[in-house]
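Internal tracking record. Fields below are filled automatically when a chain is submitted to the structure queue. Please do not edit lines marked as system-generated. If the sequence contains nonstandard residues, flag them in the REMARKS field before resubmitting.
Queue: standard
Priority: normal
Entity type: single polypeptide chain
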Amino acid sequence: MPRRIRGLLFFVLGLAAVASIAGERAPDHRAWQHGIDLIRVGDKLLLVWGSAGNPPRPNLGGDWQHDVYYAWLNTPDTKAAAPIDPQILVSQPEAQEPPSTAINARGTILMTCEDGNGGINQHAGLWDSSLRVLRKYPFMIKRGGHSGHVAAMGDRFLVAYGEGWVKGAGWLGMGTGENVFARIVDNNGKLGREIKLTPDRDSDPRDGWPLVAGSDRNWLVVWQRYPALTLQAALVDKAGAVIMRRQIIDGLPPRYAYDVEFAAPLASYVVAGSSGDGGFVALVSLTGKIVITQRGLPPMASESRIILGWDGSQLIGVYPVNPRGVAVVRLSADAIELSKVIDHPYAWDYSGTTGMFVAPERVLFVTLSTTGLRLIPININLRD
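SYSTEM-GENERATED OUTPUT FOLLOWS
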């Protein structure tokens, strides 16, 4: 290495050390990209994500500038990284992130996101299955709402979102949400009454980052509670009544790492995430009962999903492991078993990872990073 280059390298390393000593925080990767969904629309896959351009160019030190993008993946049985043609779904000044997307039984698609344009609000838009606008974005879900997530049941949607912000604590001391609410949205975009999911209380826990899944009877919303670092849940029926509140598990990491999905073959919700020194998977019945919880599994990567598939006789779950690889679990009504951990060189970022079974033993993950989208197909080989 030439002396001039070597000297420059030592100078840069010295600056990095000084920054570290001064306690300066590394840039938040969500400034590049944040929030991703992959949903099945007929025989195609629709990818929706939030990004500061493609490839992303973050506005570090200033207001984020994310737009919401989409792309159609026309090859469900992806054998290699398929080309992605990003198109803009929503573009407004300041950031629309993280987007959350669901499709209902009538083929209507709702996309909701926290919108920084004109103050922080939870906004949404409606499209048909060809992405023709049905109700133009932005219509208001909650003024001051943030960190929203949506799931469909029948022809309706439930949008769960955070409200309020408490500075300090949380991940890297960046603060936390205060309360969690939800609204039912019908097929035309009409809003139901606001539903308070967090109970009234005298103490001051903080609640935030809700995720929701829908069945044919109700929705299950889960969220993280600070400072106890517990995973809380509420069951919401078709009329918008909260019919159950309970704690799912404790020992969560400060950086949220959990997911909830509905498993029709088991008529149960699957809740997965990181807890304590490892990961967990739990089954929650349609009445809100915790049927079984398996701890001691590999830890889940932050802001990722457990992908569910049916092998003909048993439910299979696959999720990204922190920091690398994927875990494969087998789920039944009375057992949750780790089948294997598949090594993979890619290190999952915390900006968002989703995926889908595209063949009986093949999973396609799509993940966000500071360099842009990446498609990662993985063969899980259940017979090995």
